Description:
Elements: H1 6-10, E1 17-20, H2 27-36, E2 40-44, H3 52-64, E3 68-71, H4 78-89, E4 95-103, H5 115-118, H6 122-135, E5 141-149, E6 158-165, E7 170-176, E8 188-193, E9 196-201, E10 207-210, E11 214-217, H7 227-240, H8 248-264
Parallel strand pairs: 1-2, 2-3, 4-7
Antiparallel strand pairs: 4-8, 5-6, 6-7, 8-9, 9-10, 10-11
Helix pairs in contact: 2-3, 6-8
Amino acid sequence: CRHGGYEAALADASVDAVVVATPPDTHRALTLRALEAGKDVIVEKPAFPALADFERARAAARAAGRRVFAAENYYYRPVRVALARLIAEGAVDEPLLLRVNAVKRQRPEGWRADRRHTGGGGLLEGGVHWVNFMASLGPRVERVCAARAGGRAHVAESLAAVFAYEGGMVGTLAFSWEVPSPLQGVRWSALYGRGGSVWFESNGIFLCVRGRKTRISLPGLRDLSGFRAMWADFLRALREGGEPAMTFDDAERDVRLVHEIYRSMDETTPGGPGAEAAG
């Protein structure tokens, strides 16, 4: 690193933007400090565990004449893009049921094992990826609720969430960091409609459409995670002065949905007054 620290980087006039990829409990202070120094900010998901911090960041960005982007690569995953396109095109006629499998074994370590730093459990720290996936398929999410599996709240949590969409589609998300998954996390998900179905590997390795015609595709093995597309979009937006496809409002929506899921399980709101005591 050519800079001796964060403040030194902010003081460098040749630096136009900074990336905040630290534990979530530090995001607000680091973002506000960068905006105060006149830098654009790309902040790692979840951008802010507390919803009120989104408006604080917006106000600071307006005052500084800068922008804040939320780094959410799942929005750019080829499988998310392909599924949203298939729904828009009516590939399964009226979509009825969506089933997404996000179950795996992941042992939180370091700050990820401490709810004081993450602001919540595994759903907020990692599962917000999948909440973004569920909320970025076209139809608007009208409400969401969930039930926890396995007892009390802890970081490596397991739960099932139900998403009710405008237009009548219902989606279920099975999320866990506690369940061993075969083949290093290969999992199957599906979309069912009145005129067909779409079967896909959750990460996007494979997708099969069965309807009037059967189509099989590999949505995007070269950028399975969506990182290349995300950074290309961010750089375009920074250079041209526009907005990225994944907006700051989208990031706020995702955290709001996580809050609603936790509230439906009668838990401490992520990033709220009782979050530290919940560890």
